[in-house]
């Protein structure tokens, strides 16, 4: 395909990376980036790059990744609740200052022959180009102009969060909750330079209002930071901050917006990154998604015979991965919004819950990368010595552990089919889009008074994950034991649900491949 002129709207990481890739694959084309801000102006602090993202960038363009890695800051991961700390060795995690990343990508784009125009606000309708790449962010003017064709949808989360930073490097990335007189705040923080760290802090709306942040947010001008909130949080996280200040950059409370579009292209215009889609920050950054979009777009443009074919191929190839990540991210978002209720778990078990929260990582896979941590978490789950936790067949071991619940004792965690028919069991047939939608909330509020609640429903994995989320809500709201019914194909998800204290018992609608045969153990006087 012959491209003579390519225009990129937006000089963020996705736009710059797309411009470089397109210039390299179409060396005779004139590729121009238009960015409305000055080259050294940006908002935000650090950008994280996980190992898989690094591999994807290396495969697409080793030179630019090498330049990014040379300017990045490696770190590991930890979680702290009170005095308990769980550390996860993960040396391939990198973070880089957003300003530094932009500088690197600007230089890489110019090295490839891309023209950069700063301080210019351009409109897709006024540009004369064969291809226009709209990488103009979450507030995309291009998406708004083409809304009739692209059919965007924006869903807003219930929790509130803000981005800020500090002037020292944390020893590792850390997840840490702090409870004040108004409620619980959770920080997601990581170092991105020898003297800088990012702090993302979130809370629920009730806590936010009790702390007076609804008032401080209303009084804060859009171009300013909420200094009242920064001072409050600086005091709340003083120990983690080692008494360093929190630094704002147009820092104010926000609700996360999930963007999705029916179409990512119209005519010769293709959306990229946050303009086309967003995924909650707890599962993947917008920078990662935008740069991986750029890779897919470039590949489609080098193989398809026409521009329309290329843009259709870009969307066909890239959309499933994005939508899958958005589904995972939505579950992760809801998990974090309900985080405070899990703070009673031992920190290693909480780390298992965190890693398996959205169905992306199984306990067995997590054990492969962090065996000591996982074994400690599983020992807490089973109330057993750490040395009793095996190094293989982790899921089998999880199912084989006994359960003591009030006056009831079960020899293992797989319920017998007869238990479904017990007079003390209430079976709930659940078919919900989310365990946090109004219908689910009503179900939890009106949960029947039963000794055991048995959740059944559709056999799809998505439906099983939703039942696990609902089961956790029911466990916190009632005194009942909760069983989740699932097909054996979801065995690893059910094992994660048990190890994370989301459910009490499991039932497989066909025999599970485990050494623990379903039996009806003592279930009170009526067992």
Beta-strand proportion: 15-25%
User: Tally the helices: what do you get?
Assistant: 20
Percentage of residues assigned to helices: 25-40%
Arithmetic mean of pLDDT: 93
**Largest sheet, described in full?**
8 strands, mixed
What would you call the structural class? alpha/beta
Task: Report on this structure.
There is one protein chain. With 527 residues, this protein is an alpha/beta fold. The strands form 5 sheets. Strands 3-5-4-10-11-12-9-13 form an 8-stranded mixed sheet. Strands 6-2-1-7-16-15 form a 6-stranded mixed sheet, covered by helices on one side. α1 packs parallel to α11, α11 packs antiparallel against α12 and α13 packs across α15. The longest helix has 31 residues. The radius of gyration is 25 Å and the shape is globular.
What structural keywords apply?
39% helix; alpha/beta; eight-stranded mixed β-sheet; six-stranded mixed β-sheet
Short overview:
With 527 residues, the protein is an alpha/beta fold. Helices cover 39% and strands 23% of the residues.
Layout of helices and strands:
Layout: E1 5-9, H1 13-25, E2 30-35, E3 46-49, H2 51-60, H3 62-71, E4 73-81, E5 84-97, H4 98-112, E6 115-118, E7 131-134, H5 141-145, H6 147-150, E8 152-156, E9 160-166, E10 173-180, E11 183-193, E12 196-203, H7 205-210, H8 213-219, H9 227-236, H10 238-241, E13 246-247, E14 257-261, E15 265-266, E16 269-271, H11 286-303, H12 307-337, H13 347-355, H14 363-369, H15 371-382, H16 394-400, E17 403-405, E18 408-410, H17 417-420, E19 425-429, H18 438-445, E20 452-456, H19 461-477, E21 481-486, H20 491-499, E22 505-508
Helix pairs in contact: 1-4, 1-11, 2-3, 2-11, 3-4, 11-12, 13-15, 14-15, 16-20
């Amino acid at each position: 395909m012959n491209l003579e002129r390519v225009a990129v709207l937006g000089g963020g990481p996705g736009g710059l990376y797309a411009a470089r890739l397109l210039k390299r694959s179409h060396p005779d084309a004139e590729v121009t980036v238009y960015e409305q801000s000055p080259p050294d102006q940006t908002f935000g602090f650090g950008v994280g790059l996980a190992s898989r993202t690094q591999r994807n960038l290396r495969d697409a363009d080793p030179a630019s990744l090498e330049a990014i890695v040379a300017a990045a800051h490696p770190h590991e991961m930890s979680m702290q609740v009170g005095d308990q700390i769980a550390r996860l060795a993960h040396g391939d995690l990198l973070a880089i200052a957003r300003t530094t990343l932009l500088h690197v990508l600007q230089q890489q784009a110019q090295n490839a022959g891309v023209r950069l125009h700063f301080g210019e606000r351009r409109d897709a309708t006024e540009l004369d180009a064969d291809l226009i790449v709209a990488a103009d962010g979450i507030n995309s003017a291009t998406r708004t102009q083409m809304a009739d064709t692209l059919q965007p949808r924006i869903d807003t989360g219930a929790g509130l969060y803000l981005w800020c930073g500090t002037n020292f490097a944390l020893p590792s990335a850390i997840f840490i909750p702090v409870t004040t007189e108004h409620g619980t705040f959770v920080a997601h923080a990581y170092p991105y330079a020898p003297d800088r760290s990012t702090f993302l802090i979130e809370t629920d709306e009730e806590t936010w209002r009790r702390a007076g942040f609804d008032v401080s947010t209303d009084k804060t001008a859009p171009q300013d930071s909420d200094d009242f909130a920064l001072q409050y949080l600086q005091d709340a996280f003083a120990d983690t901050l080692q008494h360093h200040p929190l630094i704002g950059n147009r820092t104010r409370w926000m609700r996360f917006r999930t963007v999705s579009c029916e179409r990512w292209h119209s005519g010769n215009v293709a959306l990229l990154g946050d303009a086309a889609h967003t995924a909650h920050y707890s599962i993947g950054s917008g920078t990662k998604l935008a740069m991986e979009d750029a890779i897919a777009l470039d590949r489609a443009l080098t193989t398809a015979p026409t521009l329309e074919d290329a843009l259709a191929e870009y969307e066909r190839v890239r959309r499933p991965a994005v939508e899958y990540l958005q589904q995972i991210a939505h579950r992760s978002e809801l998990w974090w919004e309900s985080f405070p209720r899990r703070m009673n778990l031992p920190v290693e078990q909480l780390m298992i819950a965190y890693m398996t929260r959205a169905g992306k990582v199984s306990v067995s896979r997590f054990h492969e990368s962090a065996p000591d941590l996982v074994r400690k978490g599983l020992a807490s789950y089973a109330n057993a010595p750490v040395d009793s936790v095996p190094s293989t067949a982790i899921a089998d071991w999880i199912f084989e552990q006994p359960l003591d619940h009030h006056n009831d004792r079960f020899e293992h965690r797989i319920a017998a089919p007869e238990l479904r028919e017990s007079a003390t069991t209430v079976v709930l047939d659940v078919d919900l889009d989310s365990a946090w939608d109004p219908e689910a909330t009503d179900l939890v509020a009106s949960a029947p008074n039963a000794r055991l609640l048995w959740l059944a429903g559709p056999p799809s994995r998505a439906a099983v994950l939703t039942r696990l989320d609902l089961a956790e809500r029911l466990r916190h709201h009632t005194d009942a034991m909760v069983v989740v019914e699932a097909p054996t194909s979801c065995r690893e998800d059910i094992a994660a649900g048990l190890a994370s204290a989301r459910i009490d018992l499991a039932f497989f609608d066909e025999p599970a491949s485990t050494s623990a045969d379903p039996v009806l153990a003592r279930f009170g006087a009526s067992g």
